[in-house]
Specification:
24% of the residues lie in helices and 37% in strands. It is α+β, with helices and mostly antiparallel strands and 156 residues long. It has one domain: START domain (Alpha-D-Glucose-1,6-Bisphosphate, Chain A, domain 4, 2-Layer Sandwich), CATH 3.30.530. It has a seven-stranded antiparallel beta sheet. Strand 4 (68-78) and strand 5 (82-89) form a beta hairpin. The longest helix has 30 residues, at 121-150. The termini are far apart. The mean pLDDT is 95.
């Protein structure tokens, strides 16, 4: 199994509390996910953010417009510092996503660390090379740009 990774950092002009409230709420996921993925949360969500052991079920069409059911678990949370989600059911053999937050002179620094692997050995590696790797990168690029739109840096 070949493990792939993506690391992104972004400075947002938010204080840590506002950033944490936004990113720790699964209700906001649809807003920062490309619309062509047909992303839909199927689980009933609590109103007050997330908690360790929380399962979230989604339906989406991540590649080739094929429908997928995805179940993630929130595995670790340190309030206003980080949370981690891991796929329990879905298209990947491994999906481990870390979301880190820290105060920064211009607001908050948000760091994403994603480790993932595809199933099916050589066929999965070929799919990654042909389209999956690009799609995952495109999702993170969309999210980066969308967050810049939602939370623009003040003009100097």
């Amino acid at each position: 199994m070949k493990i792939h990774s993506i690391f992104t950092e972004q400075i947002l002009p938010l204080d840590l509390d506002v950033a944490w409230d936004f990113f720790s709420s699964p209700h906001n996921l649809n807003e920062i996910t490309p619309s062509d993925m047909s992303f839909h949360i199927k689980s009933e969500l609590p109103k007050n953010g997330m908690y360790e052991g929380m399962f979230i079920e989604y339906s989406l069409r991540p590649v080739l417009n094929l429908p997928v059911t995805w179940l993630t678990e929130i595995t670790h949370i340190k309030d206003r510092s980080y949370f981690m989600d891991e796929q329990r059911v879905g298209p990947y053999a491994l999906w481990h996503h870390e979301h880190h937050f820290e105060a920064h002179p211009k607001g908050v620094k948000m760091t994403d660390k994603l480790y993932y692997a595809l199933p099916f050995g050589p066929i999965g590696n070929l799919a990654h090379a042909l389209f999956v790797g690009k799609r995952v990168r495109d999702i993170f690029e969309f999210r980066f740009k969308k967050l810049e739109e939602l939370f623009p840096m003040p003009k100097s």
